[in-house]
Amino acid sequence: xxxxxxxxxxxxxxSVSLTADASAEEHIVIILESAYFPERIxxxxxxxxxxxxxxxxxxxxxSSEGLWTTDIIAARAETTVNFAPEMAGRFHGWADRLxxxxxxxxxxxxxx
Length: 112
Hints:
disordered N terminus, 4-stranded mixed β-sheet, EfeO_Cupredoxin, signal, 35% strand, globular, Cupredoxin domain-containing protein, alpha/beta, single chain
């Protein structure tokens, strides 16, 4: 059985981590046969981007500057990446043709 002091520790520190994670968002980018939807999203450091492949064929998403790439995403599958500042900018992949999208880094909202 847990001692009361241990429970207070878990509750206190658990709530701190939940608060820190509460500001992170998940963004979904759908991979279509000839486009990404949405084509452009605004993200912050700590957000996640989930690429959902609805194109009907395997697909990888890569930075247009060559800084990052996903693993190959099978048709009807998905992958999630944690956004980092170096991921900002254009990304692309091949479906029926070259398709492009953009991840724009936004500032975190100011808090009082």
